[in-house]
Write a structure and sequence with these properties.
The chain is mainly alpha-helical. It contains nine helices and no strands.
């Protein structure tokens, strides 16, 4: 969960930095910074889903995650379309550079990313810690509480027993 929070912060900082860029070097580095956020989120969110979701729902949750990614891309294109002003046919590079799109529109497109980044950050606080991570960290009661919230008492006891059995096997082998 903490890595997901860090990813959200990197998204927000990268979006602000991109919109504030004053030269090509700053823009390139801010976009690389955003690429790190995308990489971290693309790795950790499905991993988190795999850790937290009951086995019979895991595929559904991963599919929903992929759907939200695609819907996010579509939404960003629609928002950018609304931010941009129409460009006249035959406009030269100089005309575009001097237009609102060339001066401020592109900045607002980057700054618009701060809204989903902020929502990602805020909603990350309601995510429970991974119960498997809690169990492996010796926080058995906290893991049991999260598992119970996910699938009920019977599910929680079964999952925690499976984790403890796997941990015992690893300890004996190691």
């Amino acid at each position: 969960r903490k890595i997901i929070l860090v990813s959200a912060v990197i998204f927000a900082v990268g979006a602000l930095w991109s919109g504030l860029a004053t030269d090509l070097t700053s823009l390139v580095f801010s976009r690389l910074f955003l690429g790190i956020a995308i990489g971290v989120a693309s790795f950790t969110v499905p991993l988190y889903i795999a850790e937290i979701a009951p086995a019979h729902l895991r595929g559904r949750f991963v599919s929903i995650n992929q759907l939200t990614v695609v819907l996010g891309i579509l939404t960003s294109q629609i928002v950018n379309w609304q931010i941009a002003e129409p460009v006249a046919l035959g406009a030269t590079h100089e005309m575009i550079r001097e237009s609102w799109n060339g001066q401020m529109g592109w900045r607002w497109m980057f700054w618009a990313m701060t809204v989903p980044a902020a929502l990602f950050f805020v909603f990350s606080f309601i995510l429970p810690e991974s119960p498997r991570w809690l169990a492996f960290s010796g926080k058995r009661e906290a893991a049991l509480k999260v598992f119970t919230r996910m699938g009920g008492k019977e599910y929680a006891v079964t999952e925690l027993a499976a984790i403890e059995a796997a941990s015992a096997c690893q300890t004996q082998e190691g």
